[in-house]
Amino acid sequence: MLSQWLNEAPLASEDEAPALKGDIRADVCIVGGGYCGLWTALTLKQREPSLDIVIVEKNRCGDGASGRNGGFVLSWWRSFGALATFCSTDEAIRLAEASAHCVDEMANFCAAHDIDCEFRRDGWLWAATNRAQDGAWRSVIEALARHQRHPFEEWSPDQVAARSGSDKHISGVFEPTGATVQPAHLARGLRRAALAQGIRIFENTPMRRLKRTRPPRVVAPGGTVRADKVVIAMNAWATALPELSRSVLVISSDVVATETFPERLKASGWADGMAISDSRSLVNYYRTTLDGRVVFGAGGGFLSYANRVGRKFDAATPRAAEVAGYFHKVYPAFADVGIASHWTGPIDRSLSGLPFFGRLGGRADILYGLGFSGNGVGPTMLGGKVLASLALEARDEWSECGLVRHSVGQFPREPMRYIGGTLVMGAKRRIETLDDQGRKPGLITRAIANLAPAGLVPVKGYNADQPSGGANG
Ligand SMILES: Cc1cc2nc3c(=O)[nH]c(=O)nc-3n(C[C@H](O)[C@H](O)[C@H](O)COP(=O)(O)OP(=O)(O)OC[C@H]3O[C@@H](n4cnc5c(N)ncnc54)[C@H](O)[C@@H]3O)c2cc1C
Fold this sequence. Notes:
Elements: H1 4-7, E1 22-31, H2 35-47, E2 53-56, E3 72-73, H3 80-86, H4 89-112, E4 124-128, H5 138-145, E5 153-154, H6 157-164, E6 171-175, E7 179-180, H7 183-196, E8 200-202, E9 209-211, E10 217-220, E11 223-232, E12 248-258, H8 262-268, E13 275-277, E14 284-288, E15 294-298, H9 320-330, E16 339-350, E17 356-359, E18 366-370, H10 379-391, H11 416-436, H12 443-449
Parallel strand pairs: 1-2, 1-11, 2-8, 4-13, 11-18
Antiparallel strand pairs: 3-7, 4-6, 5-6, 9-10, 10-11, 12-15, 12-16, 13-14, 14-15, 17-18
Helix pairs in contact: 2-7, 2-10, 3-4, 11-12
The chain binds flavin-adenine dinucleotide.
Flavin-adenine dinucleotide is lined by residues 31-37, 56-59, 63-66, 68-72, 74, 206-207, 233-235, 237, 253, 255, 297, 345-347, 372, 374-378, 380, 472.
């Protein structure tokens, strides 16, 4: 099933991008036409207008996670603790600041290129919906305060309940940087901007093989691209490459979109585009749309065996009733509002909860970036800067930043990953149900949940001392 978003964002016939036919040559070939690939192409073109850049996309640009996410455009402030585990404090602050700056840059880019993606800068509420979640943000706020950074506003419980339209939110902090977009409109808009700048896009062109010749070749059914630089921007699908197969855990995030009910939304107090996440390990995230729907998502869904991203990740979600149930729990007053559509998509969860970039097998001509871990709408723009610098072999603040890493943590091998992951996720889910009921989990449930290696599931909140996951993964 196409997401609600993709249904609203059909491709205009005048900007068709053909499938690849024959053998061609390019300076840079980017594999994957999501935000990461598109921002990389656009950044490269801006820095080196004469470059011949090709994007090879297996479906249509934006059909992956980029066209069907929650549309939260967030910074990495809440991930400060995770950044600081592998960067110096100054570098962690610099990257968090750069990620916040990307929200402005995205707004400016969209305005300059006439991309109407319903960009709304109404902030992000990081909330608690039960006592166990209360104060999940505390350690991040305190760590940032020690460095004179104060990106979050502390709201009173009354303010949280009033602004979110539900007193099920018992506390929370607000980050004004946050924005929302209609994600498929953003992806299609970037695609249009790329085509307008002479970037060649081949859609319905799956890379079947990456030939590690010099220069490398991308092999698709209809032809090949020989390029000085190949950039892998394939999100979860990148796990098909042996070097990346255990670097992320592929797990679903699942979404329902309601019918429109703008008047009741406005009357509830949730009158603007403020995005909201709770503080579960398996996070719930929700936002309103311009036409008056709620789009409600739940992270930590089903796992794939051996990270195979099968058709299940492109279909209607099997978790629709569960996700709608979460929605009704937080907004019982909207329990009668119909669900108009529901879908799912793959999350490329890294051990740190943050993306990583590098040279495949140490080769300077094959680059990759993945691991956005459910928070990629804003950060892929930053990822594009990193990948562009790597492709240009520039020595700058992007190519040498802490996210470019020679080694990243590996998840366990199969079948341990799948069996262990399924058990741990089940225990986490049980704990969260009990948290909602104000009950304590038993010893066995806690022991199983604690078996999670750091990053196997998104950690609760964004503890400054622990790896941190996406707001939506
Ligand atoms: C349901 C859901 C909700 C989310 N909500 C949010 C949110 O609210 N905020 C947020 O910040 N992040 C969110 N995310 C994460 C965010 O969508 C991603 O981090 C981001 O879109 C990643 O961009 P990408 O370009 O790396 O990946 P994608 O957009 O997935 O792009 C990868 C592309 O590679 C293509 N591809 C794969 N294999 C091949 C091949 N062999 N040959 C050619 N092309 C190939 C795919 O078709 C795809 O188009 C969510 C994700 C999901 C699934």
